[in-house]
Amino acid sequence: MRMADDPARVVIFDTTLRDGEQAPGFTMDVLAKASLARALDALGVDVIEAGFPIASPADAEAVQHIAREVRRPTIAALARCRRQDIEEAARALAPAARPRIHTFLATSDLHLAAKLHMTRDQCLEAIVDAIRLARRFTDDVEFSAEDATRSDPEFLCRVIEAVIREGCTTVNLPDTVGYGTPDETRDFFAAIRARVCNADRAVFSTHCHDDLGLAVANSLAAIQGGARQVECTINGIGERAGNAALEEIVMALRVRRNRLPYDTGIKAEALYETSQLLTSLTQEAVQANKAIVGRNAFAHEAGIHQDGMLKDPRTYEIMRPQDVGQPAAQLVLGRHSGRHAVQQRCDTLGLRVSQTELEHVYREVIMLGERRKAVGDGDLRRILDRLRTAAEPVGAASAPVETIGYGHGV
Questions:
Q1: Cα(59)–Cα(53) distance, rounded to whole angstroms?
Q2: Nearest-angstrom CA–CA distance, 262 and 247
Q3: Contacts of residue 1, Cβ cutoff 8 Å, sequence gap at least 6
Q4: Please, are residues 265 and 233 in contact by the beta-carbon 8 Å criterion?
Q5: Contact status, residue 16 vs residue 245, Cβ threshold 8 Å
Q6: Which residues pair with 142 in a beta bridge?
Q7: In this structure, how many other beta carbons lie within 10 angstroms of the beta carbon of residue 385?
Q8: pLDDT in tens, 203-255
């Protein structure tokens, strides 16, 4: 796909099975990878990076298995700019309907000197040779300039012009160590595309890491700078602090379309299900407050928030749980809750309570919430049962202080 085909369309390149799976604790076997690949296909991702075939026989087997089974999206395999890597990637991708060889080499002076012990000329020669070789196996070749955001711009532009001239169709400029900020990322992509004379012949891609917690923000900024492919992972998993989270990018583009007028092919209602599948396969939980897919993403405990939610969910939710496949919003009962939430939960459970009983139940919920993370439905029933079976009838409750349960509402 070229940018000119649809300038508002952003290609979603999912690297959960490659970069994500490389992270400690997230290793998956062949069958698990295949299961997630099918889910990513159903989710609507455009490109699935299925693995790094030269890394291990299991990786090569997984890529081949996915290439044979998953037919709609492009299936990519990673390879260094080495003949053996590229040939192994080509073998693994042989069954694919839409194969892509994704080759990479660092271009920053730091990596060239400290890690690769190469000159710039040697680097450029290795990259060109790799693209030529990859093109013998497929018309869809992607090149990543590792540590691009810390590379010399003039040299980087030389590399990009050369790979596009050799037939590279996607150019990825990764923020490999998560060093960038949104403003410089946007300017970086805009400047590179303006300087490279044949930039219009390739799709520019962004691949951001989250070392400073800016991976999603930087990915969105790259789109504003002209990138039309975003490399990301489910739940943001990946090396070190992880990658840009697919679900956050997709929903940012959808919710803030007034500022980010771009489209993806993602079926957003399948985001939560896909996130849960990854959690099940890796046994690595998603943090509770994770945007979009965390268990607290649509949970409300503070009294003011609960009151607003009961009146109009738009007061405290910028998207609906069902938009991403999450269960219905929860009004969690705890020490910050308000009376309206207690009344609503009682009504939901079919527990008819008088105003006097509500005051008593409310105070009990607050006291119980001081000792527990949350107050459950069973707790509510027991509180009400104790109240109604007490030997002495409960008198009218004294007027409670109005701010109880509302102190943390903002």
A1: 5
A2: 15
A3: 9, 11, 46, 203, 228
A4: no
A5: no
A6: 102, 170
A7: 11
A8: 999 999 999 999 999 999 999 999 999 999 999 999 999 999 999 999 999 99
